[in-house]
Write a structure and sequence with these properties.
With 347 residues, this protein is α+β, with helices and mostly antiparallel strands. The protein is built from eleven helices and 13 strands. It folds into two domains: 112 residues, Beta-Lactamase; 186 residues, 2-Layer Sandwich (Alpha-Beta Plaits), CATH 3.30.70.1230. The chain starts with a helix and ends with a strand.
Length: 347
Amino acid sequence: MALLEATLESIMVTTADLESPGPTIVYVNPAFERMTGWSKEEIVGQSPRVLQGPSTDLSVFDDLKPRLLRGETWQARAVNYRKDGQEFIMEWSIAPIRDDRNVISQYVAVQRDVTERVETERKLERARETVVDGLRKRELLHEMFGKFIPNAIVDRVIADAGILKPDLREATVFFSDIAGFTMLTESMDPRSILSLLNEYFSLVTSPIESRGGVIHQFQGDAILATFNLPVRDSHHAANAVAAALEIQDTLGTYRFGNGSTLSTRIGINTGTVVAGTVGSSGRLGYTVHGDAVNLAARIEQENKRLGTKILIAEATKKEIGDGFECRAVETISVRGRRQPVTIYAVR
């Protein structure tokens, strides 16, 4: 008995009467008194049901009697009540006590207040649900907006609460358009033109995105993409040139659904650009600005005059070194620039 008095766990001993009206309490230790607020003098002789109340789920006791009759230990968790009416969550373990004849004479219940543990478990579950819900919403945003906005930008939009902060950095700008597209589509109906463009864009998008490029605009038959923005890439210039070469190789052997073939002209430049959201309070777009962007567009246009397919600026050539087969084709003057720019044809 001295051991029970000293233990920190709540102990209650009852009679072995399992038939109605049920067992009565014959002993509780000091830990029980501290946990429930009932003194030994007040509780002895009462039914253990004195600890139950409106929020106690009585169904947890359905298997109590059968298990105890078989001499087994019963365990459960239920809402109980202290003497002052305060709820707490208690974990029960009830086991039989046998006499010298091996007959069950009493039952001993070890009780633990697990209110804080249960609340912690609930908080963890709510946190898990919040994370799962957040991931589902994020996936939904990607699914919904990824068709209209590159995934790299969707990630930034989510992280920055919808407003992408201006980002000034070096990037490689990629411009392309289809050679002779206007003449090709003069005799086509609008639906056929859209079908051809979608097939073309699907074809050329993969080499760009697989190398870390982000497409900012499809404008008519033109594409504007950047490398190293918004996703950082230490090999952005080389990846842009490699994407351009793959596009040209693919188009060289590809025949579109209407039987036609297409040729594209590409201009690439490396320099400082600024990227961010622009527009009105009701409608924003993510785009890039700067002299480096304008120069890439100008270089792309030079392909038509020079009869080339891929032209890169001197700044891009310095970045890629000798990694690609390039030849200097011309030094051009660009409006707004004091120094002329040497451009290189790739392969």
